[in-house]
Design brief:
- The protein is α+β, with helices and mostly antiparallel strands.
- The protein is built from eleven helices and 13 strands.
- An eleven-stranded antiparallel sheet has the order 10-7-9-8-5-2-4-3-11-12-13. The chain has a two-stranded antiparallel ribbon with strand order 1-6.
- Helix 7 crosses helix 8 and helix 8 crosses helix 9.
- The longest helix has 14 residues.
């Protein structure tokens, strides 16, 4: 595990809280010159250590999210990996342990698109032997909530004041939204003028669309850090059965942990899944014991330790968890 200078970690932590804050705003919160922060961020991006991305927001009524387990022919794993990563709707591809070879997070416009376009493409991939699908019925948290722990409470509070949570109800997604989203997938800090230039849309139109997307939560932003620099090298996903009426309490308990990366209600025998980054394998048992204490009746169906992430929210990753520069959109 490689350690970054504390100044780098402070900047990443700040961008986790306020991904689109200006360098001037970040400079006030961190006590650094804006130009220094901008140069530091450019270096982190160029060295493939950290990046900010935007993705479709977590509103199940606006789209269909599926968590898919894939078993594959052991002799064709490399080919299956490449084929699955090439599917744009397959946002995340993780190497899995236990019952599956791969765990996928997939996103489609609606269930019909998922059933008629995405799932058939996955099932017909050469080497895929079995597919198990669970649909998300509610997303409590995604990767945008995970945090480092390097800024002071006062700094975190100052940065939090720069963030405006969604205040409007989700709307029907217009066709003009998707070109903008593709730009934000590559760079979540892209300005309205940069988006307009990349999409060919008028700057004022882009500005209004960006404002609407952020205000309604249609776009979720996150600052990612390559796993070898996080201090939490172990990524674990759990599948659990939560008693009726206890899912809100379960999500609230998990949200107390700053390394949470996913928390969702699902269909299937396990009606709840969550993912977290941990320091050591011993932390798995500790978390499960605390979870059972807080949520009576919970049953842990399976815990899956991630070996490697090949693709995260469209970004292709190398064996060290660093972005290769390729984004599948």
């Amino acid at each position: 595990m490689v350690e970054l200078p504390v100044e780098d970690l402070q900047l990443v932590h700040a961008l986790q809280i306020a991904p689109r804050a200006s360098w001037a705003e970040l400079g006030v919160a961190l006590g650094r010159h804006p130009a220094t922060l901008s140069a530091r961020w450019n270096r982190l991006r160029e060295d493939r250590m950290a990046w900010v991305l935007g993705h479709l927001g977590g509103h199940p009524e606006q789209h269909c999210t599926a968590f898919i387990e894939v078993q594959a022919n052991p002799e064709l794993l490399e080919q299956v990996t490449a084929e699955l990563c090439a599917i744009p709707q397959v946002l995340t591809v993780d190497d899995a342990t236990s019952t599956a070879d791969f765990r996928l997070t997939c996103l489609a416009a609606d269930w019909l698109s998922m059933a008629r376009e995405v799932l058939p493409r996955i099932r017909t991939t050469k080497g895929v032997q079995r597919v198990k699908v669970s649909l998300s019925t509610r997303l409590f948290a995604t990767g945008n909530v995970w945090r480092l722990d390097v800024l002071s409470p006062a700094q975190q509070a100052a940065l939090q004041r720069l963030v405006h949570p969604p205040t409007s109800a989700p709307t029907i997604i217009p066709d003009t939204f998707w070109p903008m989203l593709r730009v934000l997938m590559h760079d979540g800090r892209a300005t309205a003028s940069e988006i307009a230039q990349a999409t060919g849309q008028h700057p004022s139109t882009t500005g209004r669309a960006l404002k609407t997307a952020l205000e309604t939560g249609m776009v979720t932003l996150r600052c990612e850090l390559a796993s070898q620099y996080t201090g939490y090298p172990l990524t674990v996903q759990w599948f659990a059965r939560i008693p009726a009426g206890s899912q809100e309490a379960a999500a609230a308990f998990l949200m107390e942990h700053r390394t949470l990366r996913l928390c969702a209600s699902t269909t299937g025998a396990a009606n709840f899944t969550f993912m977290m980054q941990l320091r050591t394998p011993a932390d798995i048992a500790t978390l499960e014991a605390k979870f059972a204490e807080r949520i009576p009746g919970v049953v842990i169906v399976e815990s899956c330790v991630g070996i490697r992430s090949f693709k995260r929210m469209g970004w292709m990753l190398d064996s060290q968890g660093r972005p290769t520069g390729d984004v599948v959109d």
